[in-house]
Amino acid sequence: MAQIELEHIERIFRLGDSEVHALRDVSLRIEAGEYLAVMGPSGSGKSTLLNLLGLLDRPNAGHYRLEGRDVTTLSADEQARVRSARIGFVFQSFHLVPRLSAAENIGLPLMLAGVAPAERAQRVAQALADFGLEQRAGHRPEELSGGQRQRVAIARATIMRPAMLLADEPTGNLDRSTGQEVTALLEALNAGGTTLIVVTHDPVMGARARRRVLMEDGAIRRDEAVAPAAP
Amino acid sequence: MSPADTLRFAAAAALGNRLRSALMVLAMSIGVAAVVVLTALGDGARRYVVGEFAALGASLVIVLPGRTETGGVNPGSFITSTPRDLTVDDAAALLRAPSVNRVAPLAVGNAELSSGGRVREAMVVGTSADYLDLRKMALSAGRFLPREDFSRASGLAVIGETLRAEFFGNGPAVGRSIRAGDRRLRVIGVLAPAGQGLGMNSDEMLIVPVATAQAMFDTNTLFRIMVEARGREALGAAQREMETILRARHDGELDVTLISQDAVLGTFDRILGALTLGVAGIAAISLAVAGILVMNVMLVAVTQRTAEIGLLMALGASGRLIRTAFLVEAALLSIAGAAVGFLLGHAGAWAIRLAYPVLPAWPPAWAVAAAVGTALVTGLGFGVMPARRAARLDPVQALARR
Predict the structure, then answer these.
(1) CATH number of the domain that A100 lies in?
(2) Residue-level pLDDT, tens digit, chain A, 231 residues
(3) Does B201 lie in the same domain as B141?
(4) At which of B201, B229, B254 does a domain end?
(5) Cβ within 8 Å, pair A109-B321
(6) Does residue B58 fall inside a structural domain?
(7) How many domains does chain B have?
(8) Is residue B75, in this structure, part of any structural domain at all?
(9) What is the enclosing helix (H) or strand (E) of B379?
(10) How close, in Å, is residue B289 to chain A by CA atoms?
(11) Nearest chain B residue (CA) to A115
(12) Fewest 10 Å CB contacts: which of A164, B208, B319, B329?
């Protein structure tokens, strides 16, 4: 049983009277611990695929089995629980809550899940240490650099110890060296066993993944496993 | 999310935009304060009037000459002549009614007073010994009119505080003489200062025996007869006995009007109570307006924080959790508004009491509870729609917003 199994997924958006076929007959199997890059031109359906994988969107047809369980038929609240426990998101624009400090942003998923404050504080402290953010715990996002912000976002995405990490252009808003730092961080998490799925159109980042899925017009054009790039 | 965390999260969200929250709290507090102040004013007026009447005595019946009929034309209307006057003999006869405790005849007029070269005009009240207790007045010096026959015109006088100060200054007043018109009176007592009461200022009054006043004004009629029943329960019986006595004395015709404090008091109580309710209702409109403002502000907040809502959903927040968070935020702002309004309202009522000490402007408890309750209900009620809108956002589209 693969961790993620997509079968004949269709996703159609209606814009006025025209229909946009965002995903056409997409089938995909991803094993636990894989490092996968989804690539392709804009409008090819990469982000839609990522939203579907993250249970933020529902397909019009097809089945999505996550860890053997069909999640397409779950109610919105049940999907929220699955997101909370199994899925971590990293966004291009970080999506930090501006009025909360770095530590509070990292602790947000724990708070939403109802984890007791004492345990929360301990786990947040550990995450701050793991991501080298101890000095920045009380700072608000506007007081952090881009790299620090993305590190806070990654810490937040992993604080619930999810099975998979979905990253949408995680380095898109960062300069080259910070981007590499963040990439290394994500790869380290993947090395620890977390499935890493990255949407990018940065060929350098794509080249580092062990499996590349190329999308075009909502369909998978190429799906190739490659030997890991030399570090 | 635990309740404490929800509260903290909502409070942080409310404090995140200070100006918006402050304006909303202000609007809500003005509404609550308006209800509190206006009902304090209305209820204060009611209590003032009721208090004034109660000061006259709850078991008091006032007899007026003449009868106001609202029953239309009856056979009696064609044979009656002008009403007979009230006389001191009527007053003396009323004293024989078993339910009557005290009787004070009243003859009133103005006269020029003079003493020691000082002259002024003042109200002269002719009455009897019982008047002091009937009106619940007190003396600061000397004694009141002696108990004697209503027809004895002795030259005694009791003066009010203002008259005492104006005529005798710091010297003793009791025992001095004062002229009223062409009569020489001996001052035997001074009334304790009492201030204004229902248009009669007892501080500027000169009280003499009723016969003296009638002689002074050359009349044998009375202005009023004030009667005190033996307690409040005896009021009805006293009124019936008095009607019987007066009918018999006035050739079988009841040509007087009896007014009891109870009836007047009840009417004023009802009128002013209704007035207070009306004023509270008008003030409550501002609360409804504040409620709409709450909705507007919360809708803006949902729009402003769309990306944040999307993020919370991505992080595993259910729709209910987001709805609760926004509702709690609206509730917190409403509670803050109600609390500030409560304090503002009480400060306003306090200022009114300071400016008009005679007015007991305390907001009634029901009005305060209703104002605060309405504030919370409108705040929550108008917060539901924005909260639902937030919870129903599509996470993908919400996240796409910056």
Answers:
(1) 3.40.50.300
(2) 788 999 999 999 988 888 888 999 999 999 999 999 999 988 888 989 999 999 999 999 999 999 989 998 899 889 999 999 999 999 988 899 999 999 999 999 999 998 999 999 999 999 999 888 999 999 999 999 989 999 999 999 999 999 999 999 998 888 888 888 889 999 999 999 999 999 988 888 888 899 999 999 999 999 988 765 544
(3) yes
(4) B254
(5) no
(6) no
(7) 2
(8) no
(9) helix B365-391
(10) 30
(11) B1
(12) B319
- Residue to mutate among A57, A82, A90, A111, with most B CBs inside 10 A, is A111
Query: Alpha-carbon distance A136 to A120, whole Å?
Result: 17
Record: contact A100-B307, CB cut-off 8 A? no
- Closest partner residue to A113 (CB to CB) among B316, B395, B402 is B316
Specify the length of chain A in residues: 231
Neighbours of B9 (CB within 10 A): 23
Non-local CB neighbours of B395 within 8 Å, separated by 6+ positions:
A56, A57, B310, B313, B314
Query: What is the ipTM, given to two decimal places?
Result: 0.90
- Residue B232's Cβ-count burial label (10 Å; 0-12, 13-18, 19+) is middle
Would you call B315 and A108 a contact, using CB atoms and an 8 Å cutoff? yes
> In this structure, are B20 and B123 located in the same domain?
no
The number of C-beta contacts closer than 8 angstroms across A and B is 68
Residue A231 lies in a domain: no
* Residue B396: closest C-alpha in chain A: A56
| The model's pTM | 0.70
Same domain, yes or no: B250 and B283: no
Mutation target vs B (from A11, A96, A97, A169; most B CBs, 10 A cutoff): A97
User: What is the residue range of B293's domain?
Assistant: 3-53+266-400
Token pair recorded at residue B156: 């005694």
Is residue B282 situated within a structural domain?
Answer: yes
Measured in degrees and rounded to the nearest 5, phi and psi for residue B144 equal -90, -175
Q: Chain A neighbours among B 320-359 (CB < 8 Å)?
A: 320-321
